[in-house]
Design goal:
single chain, 178 residues, Tetracycline Repressor, domain 2, elongated
């Protein structure tokens, strides 16, 4: 709370007039972040030309979001702020899962994703994959830059779902230049 007060240029006393405790501050911060993210993603859904364009815009958005991300922050959230972790998980396994599933289903219909793809299974694997990426035993932040790990995961995901037609579209985007 000292760091927050210093960053905001106010006293802790003033912060505690606005929030009850650190738990509430973390919860409100997460709710605000998720609401902003939801708005950004819904805008992408409105403007995307097709499923691959939608997925690429979402990926670009997420890559921008994780530029400075420390994966241990989610581990801390899970460990020390279970109520906020539940809010985050609810968002992931409701809003995000639904969005990814719809993207997969429409991509199959458009012929840019594999026709035999099971959207229900693949969307759950995609969402749950983030848990693997933040696992400090598998990908310790001292050895792996989260952004690099995340980009590899996204390449893995996209190459696994696209059809031949989709691969041609994906290659035109040149998404993962080194």
């Amino acid at each position: 709370m000292d760091d927050v007060a210093r960053e905001l240029g106010m006293s802790k006393k003033t912060i505690y007039v606005l929030v009850e405790d650190k738990n509430e501050l973390v919860r409100l911060s997460m709710q605000n972040y998720l609401e902003e993210e939801r708005n950004q993603l819904e805008e992408i859904l409105k403007t995307a030309k097709d499923s691959i364009d939608e997925m690429i815009q979402m990926i670009s958005y997420f890559i921008h979001q994780v530029q400075e991300f420390n994966p241990s922050a989610l581990n801390d959230l899970q460990k020390y702020y279970p109520e906020t972790w539940d809010i985050y998980n609810s968002y992931r396994f409701h809003f995000m899962l639904k969005m990814v599933t719809k993207n997969l289903e429409s991509g199959v219909k458009q012929g840019v994703y594999r026709k035999e793809l099971n959207a229900d299974i693949i969307s759950k694997i995609y969402i749950a994959g983030i848990d693997i990426l933040i696992n400090q035993q598998l990908f310790p932040s001292k050895k792996y830059v989260f952004l690099d790990t995340y980009k590899e995961y996204l390449k893995y995901h996209l190459c696994g779902i696209v059809s031949v037609k989709g691969l041609k579209v994906l290659e035109q985007h040149n998404l993962f230049k080194r």
